[in-house]
């Protein structure tokens, strides 16, 4: 508990923090001073509660701190510096400059102490739910003596207006995530002015309806904040602390104004404000010695907690399991054998692969957006969250994606999440952030094309493959059968990046076993010929179509090679010599999607020029030109 006699010192700490943030934004001549200044009092108190160890930032039982409003980055970096992380005063002075540790919005793996890249508003709230879910599962698997940390999240009005926060908080309340504490910076200000221009929601009632405990405080009253955090740490459900604050608190002219949200205060305003609060108006990036020492208490308390935890670990019978989860052995996985099968949808073969991986890797977890029977994603016999490894995300694709990012960044888990490919549109923001972080999340996207059939154009993905292939760091796999599916997983598990598996609803013939090394290059020869005149490029269900077309063309005297491209992204990374060795003669790409990216390699593309239609999958494939007759006709015209 805070000492009432020390309120003057807490005020000095908070004002020091305010002006440090204001100086950073002013020095960069861009940024957001308002939220950091308004949150300074809360940040001071939080430092006395949170357990972090800057000398061991990856300590698995540390508390997690998520800034959902990434625009408050000046506060993030200031705290990391003052708490003792590897963020120097010079780094603060380089705020928002190219190559610095302190970019405009915090980025995971770029700045020590940043747990996750939150990016768009609302993502961080869902990330915090994900961290809390990871902590709850880890506690059940490893014991509460080893995993008992809290997850703190700072969010604002904008985060709660975004729909993703509703999805995530609904799931958190459903699971009684008592390790989650969200502090809502309720300053009633958005970029366009007062929140009431677009928002009049009863936040208290909303969260009560979602099974949260609600606490309300004056966000500038240290003792109230302290009392609320103490109460929240012993709650039996997730807690929302509604902190009424003033944006740009401490600024003499702009306190409470929306003008302080996204622009520097100005040198004159900062100088006047500093002088009014007893600071030297000429001194910049200044922290009084007494305040600096008090901020360092956070690191000292965290180091002590880490040391005590290490002793507990040494005596724990779960130590071996923890180490196995920290360092998974991919080489020991026993993949299924499809040799006896005739035809199988890749969503089905993928389900068998998921279970084989889960059998070997205790940290392999995941679930579906209420589509597990269709996605084939149930991990059989492994139970449901919070005690088991199957996650039921409900119909919440937005939140599912962001939660999975946190599950990955937590440090113990390899998460997958699943839905129909057309609904991947809901997940794009979180997939993009995962790709930016290179977080190992595995996306299972089934019902991959017009082969969906009778559900019609609204449910048939067309442009999604091109979209996700255009996303840097994301590897999109579209296997042609179960054998290629296995090889894709062998590659994906070892990549330090997210991967997507785009899988068929319809049954596909099993062609032949595939080497991991072939998939690692993104493309390989499926059928060869001599004196090649034509190369057919294909993925997924269209590979078998390419093989049948090639046989007809060969019979007519056109030497044809077939190249399967299970991962366009990996193929793109290969050197020119390898690409040229595969692409002989005229090149025709075949894919039941928009396919505009194939023009990087192909002379012509048989792809989708519009949306799909309602009808049986076979009829749609024929109607849209994915038939042997059309492929051979296009190929022959290309040769002529």
From TrEMBL:
<keyword id="KW-0808">Transferase</keyword>
<feature type="domain" description="Transketolase-like pyrimidine-binding">
    <location>
        <begin position="344"/>
        <end position="510"/>
    </location>
</feature>
<comment type="function">
    <text>Catalyzes the transfer of a two-carbon ketol group from a ketose donor to an aldose acceptor, via a covalent intermediate with the cofactor thiamine pyrophosphate.</text>
</comment>
<dbReference type="InterPro" id="IPR005478">
    <property type="entry name" value="Transketolase_bac-like"/>
</dbReference>
<dbReference type="InterPro" id="IPR049557">
    <property type="entry name" value="Transketolase_CS"/>
</dbReference>
<comment type="subunit">
    <text>Homodimer.</text>
</comment>
<dbReference type="InterPro" id="IPR020826">
    <property type="entry name" value="Transketolase_BS"/>
</dbReference>
<dbReference type="InterPro" id="IPR029061">
    <property type="entry name" value="THDP-binding"/>
</dbReference>
<dbReference type="InterPro" id="IPR005474">
    <property type="entry name" value="Transketolase_N"/>
</dbReference>
<dbReference type="InterPro" id="IPR009014">
    <property type="entry name" value="Transketo_C/PFOR_II"/>
</dbReference>
<keyword id="KW-0106">Calcium</keyword>
<keyword id="KW-0479">Metal-binding</keyword>
<keyword id="KW-0460">Magnesium</keyword>
<protein>
    <recommendedName>
        <fullName>Transketolase</fullName>
        <ecNumber>2.2.1.1</ecNumber>
    </recommendedName>
</protein>
<dbReference type="GO" id="GO:0004802">
    <property type="term" value="F:transketolase activity"/>
</dbReference>
<keyword id="KW-0786">Thiamine pyrophosphate</keyword>
<dbReference type="InterPro" id="IPR055152">
    <property type="entry name" value="Transketolase-like_C_2"/>
</dbReference>
<dbReference type="Pfam" id="PF00456">
    <property type="entry name" value="Transketolase_N"/>
</dbReference>
<dbReference type="Pfam" id="PF22613">
    <property type="entry name" value="Transketolase_C_1"/>
</dbReference>
<comment type="similarity">
    <text>Belongs to the transketolase family.</text>
</comment>
<dbReference type="InterPro" id="IPR033247">
    <property type="entry name" value="Transketolase_fam"/>
</dbReference>
<dbReference type="InterPro" id="IPR005475">
    <property type="entry name" value="Transketolase-like_Pyr-bd"/>
</dbReference>
<dbReference type="Pfam" id="PF02779">
    <property type="entry name" value="Transket_pyr"/>
</dbReference>
């Amino acid at each position: 508990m805070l000492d009432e006699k020390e309120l003057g010192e807490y005020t000095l700490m908070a004002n020091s923090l305010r002006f440090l943030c204001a100086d950073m934004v002013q020095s960069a001549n861009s940024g957001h001073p308002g939220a950091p200044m308004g949150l300074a009092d809360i940040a001071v108190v939080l430092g006395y509660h949170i357990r972090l160890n800057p000398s061991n930032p990856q300590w698995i039982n540390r508390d997690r701190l998520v800034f959902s409003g990434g625009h408050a980055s000046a506060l993030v970096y200031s705290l990391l510096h003052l708490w003792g992380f590897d963020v120097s005063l010079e780094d603060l002075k380089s705020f928002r400059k190219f190559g610095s540790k302190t970019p405009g919005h915090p980025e995971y793996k770029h700045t020590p102490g940043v747990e996750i890249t939150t990016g768009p508003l609302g993502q961080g709230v869902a990330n915090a739910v994900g961290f809390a879910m990871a902590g709850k599962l880890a506690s059940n698997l490893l014991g509460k003596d080893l995993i008992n940390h809290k997850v703190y999240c700072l969010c604002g009005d904008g985060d709660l207006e975004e729909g993703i926060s509703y999805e995530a908080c609904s799931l958190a309340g459903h699971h009684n995530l008592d390790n989650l504490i969200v502090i809502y910076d309720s300053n009633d200000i958005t970029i366009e002015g007062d929140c009431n221009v677009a928002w009049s929601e009863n936040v208290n009632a909303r969260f009560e309806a979602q099974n949260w405990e609600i606490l309300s405080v004056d966000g500038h009253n240290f003792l109230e904040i302290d009392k609320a955090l103490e109460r929240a740490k012993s709650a039996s459900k997730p807690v929302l602390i509604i902190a009424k604050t003033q944006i740009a608190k401490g600024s003499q002219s702009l306190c409470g104004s929306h003008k302080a949200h996204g622009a520097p205060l100005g040198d004159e305003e900062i100088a006047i404000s500093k002088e009014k609060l007893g600071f030297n108006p000429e001194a910049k990036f200044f922290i009084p010695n007494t305040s600096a020492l008090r901020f360092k208490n956070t690191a000292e308390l965290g180091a002590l907690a880490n040391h005590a935890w290490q002793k507990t670990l040494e005596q724990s019978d779960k130590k071996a399991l923890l180490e196995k989860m920290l360092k998974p052995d991919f080489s020991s996985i026993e993949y299924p054998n499809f040799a006896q099968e005739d035809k199988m949808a890749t969503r089905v073969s993928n389900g068998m692969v998921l279970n084989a991986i889960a059998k070997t890797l205790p940290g392999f977890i995941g679930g579906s957006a209420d589509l597990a029977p269709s996605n084939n994603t149930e991990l059989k016999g492994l139970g449901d969250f919070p005690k088991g490894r199957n996650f039921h995300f409900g119909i919440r694709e937005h939140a599912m994606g962001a939660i999975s990012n946190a599950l990955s960044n937590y440090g113990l888990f390899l998460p997958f999440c699943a839905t129909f490919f057309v609904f991947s549109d809901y997940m794009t923001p979180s997939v993009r952030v995962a790709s930016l972080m290179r977080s190992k999340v595995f996306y299972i996207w089934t019902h991959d094309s017009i082969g969906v059939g009778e559900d019609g154009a609204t449910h048939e993905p067309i442009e999604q493959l091109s979209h996700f292939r255009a996303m840097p760091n994301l590897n999109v796999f579209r296997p042609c059968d179960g054998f290629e599916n296995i090889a894709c997983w062998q590659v994906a598990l070892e990549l330090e990046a997210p991967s997507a598996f785009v899988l068929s609803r319809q049954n596909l013939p099993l062609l032949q076993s595939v080497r991991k090394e072939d998939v690692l290059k993104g493309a390989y020869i499926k059928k060869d010929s001599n004196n090649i005149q034509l190369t057919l490029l294909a993925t997924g269900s269209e590979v078998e179509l390419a093989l049948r077309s090639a046989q007809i063309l060969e019979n007519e005297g056109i030497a044809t090679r077939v190249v399967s491209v299970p991962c366009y992204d990996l193929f793109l990374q290969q050197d020119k010599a390898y690409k040229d060795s595969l692409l002989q003669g005229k090149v025709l790409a075949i894919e039941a999607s928009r396919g505009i990216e194939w023009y990087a390699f192909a002379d012509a593309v048989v792809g989708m020029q519009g949306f799909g239609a309602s009808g049986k999958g076979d009829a749609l494939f024929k109607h849209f030109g994915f038939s042997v007759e059309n492929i051979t006709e296009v190929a022959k015209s290309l040769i002529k």
